[in-house]
Sequence to fold (414 residues):
Amino acid sequence: MAHTSRVLIEHQCPQCGAPATLEETDHLFTCPFCRVKSFLTSRDFFRYLLPHAPRAGTEVVYLPYWRLKGILLSSTPGGVKHKIVDASYQAVTSPLFPASLGLRSQTLKLRFVTPETEGRFLRPSVPVRQMKATAEEGFLGPLPKPVFEQALIGNAISQIYAPFYVSARSVVDAVLNRPVSQELPAEFDLGQFPGGPPDWQIRFIPALCPDCGWDLEGERDSLVLHCGNCKVLWQASRGKFSRIRAAHVPGGGGGGLHLPFYRIEATVSGIQLRSLADLVTLANLPKVIQPGWEKVPFHFWFPAFKVRPDDMLRFSRNLTLTQPRGELTEGLPGAGALHPVTLPLSEVTDGLKIILASFVKPPQTMLPRLREVTIKPKAALVVYVPFQEERADFSQPEFQLRINKHLLRYAKHL
Ligand SMILES: [Zn+2]
Ligand SMILES: [Zn+2]
Fold:
């Protein structure tokens, strides 16, 4: 299994100021001193800083790098291939600076960039879309051709700022105090790169239910919290919690684990996929289309939690082909543990075309048509599916799903 890196962030409790260390995947912070729970959010993504000891008389600028952790799915003639991606890319392209952060972000504790952070921060010139396209291209090499479609499901996109200064006609890495560029032209000036003081704010929201005031529950890496009193799911957006729709498949009993899935209603164009009847035709399922199936809406299913790529594909394909419907009950399950939602919906939607690619028949004629297909999500529901604990696995006999306990725990760090 590919190993991915873990980045640590130095931080202070917003309530009592006690020092703390966070993992980059942490969202729910419980202070070990004052016990206050807060939820960490930002407008778009988190921005971190590589710490350094400033040298007297040097003018430091911070160059942004995109950091990307995710899963790359590629539809090829031999089926869907996957790869775990853990990389950094310049967000300001310049040959004078290192092309990536290398291993430094894994050996140093990072800090959040806040408006109080001093220094000049160069303005990113590479948008996130472009960075993802570069990453996808970079991994095309060994894949069987043609590659019909690629999706990068990045579950952690952030920016890391690295400090540099100019000394003796060279760009110097301010962390290592080591030159990183060739000899600079005499007229070179770091001021030519647009930038300024940082104006991003991370926000801490008290993790309290907006309806009843109870402490919200979740794991450190949960993107969605729940109120055990109101039995409602809450998601932070724009600095406050808003309620999101949830449902569950009954039958979990008390001892099992509920895994969260997104059930996504989407507008599909370029191919007919609106109803259960369309699915049976498109996937050539061994079923006789029943009267009324052309009116039963089709939904994509996708795990709402981090999981290894092969499990991710198998789970979404199985549930999408099964189309659970009659058995859904509105709201959260009454008993049993809830596995945290750790994959944002926005990161999942790119993968829907790959799921489609995994079942369209016949692939020889259908896969080349994927380029003309667009999938636009309209509505989503978080559905908790009960799994039974068996020796090494959690299993779901009804939908024929199974996952190894150890791998599920390990997938947190993907
Ligand atoms: Zn505290
Ligand atoms: Zn409540």
About this structure: Residues 258 and 338 are 5 Å apart (CA to CA). The first helix runs from residue 104 to 107.
